[in-house]
Every structure is written in structure tokens, then in C-alpha cells.
């Protein structure tokens, strides 16, 4: 078994993440294609370990407006989550993707909505869309990614790939998928789950607390101005670190000729 496959198998058993799906519900989709989206969401949820301390799922649908189908905090077990996936309705309308992405940032990826970003749980958004957006997507997507959210893009049919590239994380070969029709969504399930699990593990490692004992030895022969500069640097460092008996510890000493 390849290292990546081993890693994914372990991740599937023990992954922890907050994942929100943003689904295009515009009139261009059509009811039969929308049912394919529902089937895709169901298959992805089935492949994840759902629970309050494991994977949480949220869902938003957008057209001219963005609709809060359910938040990360709403369904903490797989049974109720699958029931919600099976029953949310097709909204229809236009395609304002940028507004919808901002909606995710302000209404979903917050502690009040069930996000565990404050506990260093990886944050993931999956955007599924076809066609062009009627509003700007670049700035909203940048704001979402700058908040630490990993963004995946799935384009269907005549989806604007350049637009999707500006939404998803980089590189596109990892975070962007393009398919010819909604029936092909099912083929993406395994790839999405594999990429998500690797991204979750990578982000967990990046976000993990790392502790150390740091000791500074300062030359007492520096000028008063230089000493204040050093003091300022160390103060900023101390404010940025998690200082404590079981966390980072800092030590300081000065040396000179006497």
C-alpha cells in the first residue's frame, strides 16, 4: 500500500474537520441534476466519520440569494445529517457566487454556527457550481481563504474554470475538479474524500501547538537604544507565543566582562 493510501485510511478513521458545502441552486441546474447533487452529498457524508468531536457538516445553497440549509452545529450524527441532505429543497434563481462565499464566511465559519476553528480544527469549504457568476468572486474567496478555510471547487458542464481557479486553493490539480455533467459527480467522491483527508492531516500538523524552552543570552555591552530594540522584539515574541508551565517557556540572561 502506498504511503498516501495508508495516510487516507488512517484519516478516514480519525479525521476531525468542519466542512461546509456551498451548492449552486440556480435555475440553470434543473431538478434532475439537482438530485444528482443530493446523491453526491449523501455519498460523501456516508464516507465520513460524523460526530460532535469528529467531522461536522454544514450546507448552504445559493442562487440570487444564499440559503442557510443547515449549520455545522445542527446535525451531530449521521442519521439526522443524511435526513437533512435528503429533504432540503431546490431553490432556483440566478447565480451570485461571490455573495454566497461571503455568506459562508460570516454565517458558517463562526463559533456561533458550530465552527471549531478556535480549537484548531481544519476548516473546509466545497463549492459546487456551473456557469458564470453574476458577481465578483475573487475578493470574497480571498477573504474566505485568508480566514484559514481550505476551499475546494467543483465545476460542472459550462462552469467558468478561470473563475473556479480564483475561488479554490492552490494548486488547482489538488483543489479543483471539472466534470462534464452532474451524473459524473459520483466519480468525484473518492477523489474528494482522499484530497480532503490529506488536507485535513496537513492542516492539523500546521496548526498543532509546538512547545519549546527558549533561552536568550544578551550582550550587556549594547547601547541603550539597541537594548530597547531587543526588549521590544522579545515582548512581541512573548505576546505571540503560548506561554505557560506546559507550553513555551522563555529565559533571559545578560553577559559582559564582569
TrEMBL record:
Q: Does the keyword Secreted apply?
A: yes
Major location (coarse): secreted
What are its GO cellular component terms? Answer: collagen trimer; extracellular region
Q: Which Pfam families match?
A: VWA
- What does the UniProt keyword field contain? Collagen, Glycoprotein, Repeat, Secreted
Record's InterPro entries? Answer: ECM_Assembly_Org, VWF_A, vWFA_dom_sf
Q: Where in the cell is it found?
A: Secreted, Extracellular space
Q: Give the VWFA domain ranges.
A: 18-192, 213-258
Which PANTHER family does the record cross-reference, listed alphabetically? COLLAGEN ALPHA (PTHR24020), COLLAGEN, TYPE VI, ALPHA 4 (PTHR24020:SF86)
What protein name does the entry list?
A: VWFA domain-containing protein
- Biological classification of the source: Eukaryota, Metazoa, Chordata, Craniata, Vertebrata
Amino acid at each position: 500500500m502506498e504511503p498516501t493510501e495508508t495516510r487516507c485510511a488512517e484519516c478516514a478513521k480519525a479525521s476531525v474537520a468542519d466542512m461546509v458545502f456551498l451548492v449552486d441552486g440556480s435555475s440553470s441546474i434543473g431538478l434532475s441534476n439537482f438530485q444528482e447533487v443530493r446523491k453526491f452529498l449523501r455519498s460523501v457524508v456516508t464516507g465520513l466519520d460524523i460526530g460532535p468531536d469528529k467531522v461536522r457538516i454544514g450546507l448552504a445553497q445559493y442562487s440570487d440569494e444564499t440559503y442557510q440549509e443547515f449549520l455545522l452545529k445542527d446535525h451531530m450524527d449521521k442519521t439526522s445529517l443524511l435526513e437533512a441532505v435528503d429533504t432540503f429543497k431546490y431553490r432556483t434563481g440566478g447565480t451570485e457566487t461571490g455573495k454566497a462565499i461571503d455568506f459562508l464566511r460570516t454565517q458558517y465559519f463562526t463559533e456561533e454556527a458550530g465552527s471549531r476553528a478556535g480549537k484548531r480544527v481544519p476548516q473546509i469549504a466545497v463549492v459546487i457550481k456551473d456557469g458564470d457568476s453574476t458577481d465578483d468572486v475573487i475578493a470574497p474567496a480571498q477573504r474566505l481563504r485568508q480566514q484559514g478555510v481550505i476551499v475546494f471547487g467543483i465545476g460542472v458542464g459550462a462552469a467558468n474554470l478561470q473563475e473556479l481557479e480564483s475561488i479554490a486553493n492552490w494548486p488547482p490539480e489538488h483543489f479543483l475538479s471539472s466534470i462534464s455533467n452532474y451524473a459524473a459527480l459520483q466519480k468525484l467522491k473518492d477523489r474528494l474524500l482522499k484530497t480532503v483527508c490529506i488536507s485535513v492531516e496537513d492542516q492539523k500538523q500546521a496548526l498543532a501547538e509546538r512547545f519549546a524552552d527558549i533561552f536568550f543570552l544578551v550582550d550587556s555591552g549594547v547601547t541603550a537604544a539597541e537594548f530597547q530594540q531587543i526588549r521590544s522584539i522579545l515582548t512581541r515574541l512573548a505576546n505571540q507565543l503560548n506561554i505557560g508551565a506546559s507550553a513555551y517557556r522563555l529565559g533571559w540572561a545578560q553577559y559582559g566582562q564582569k
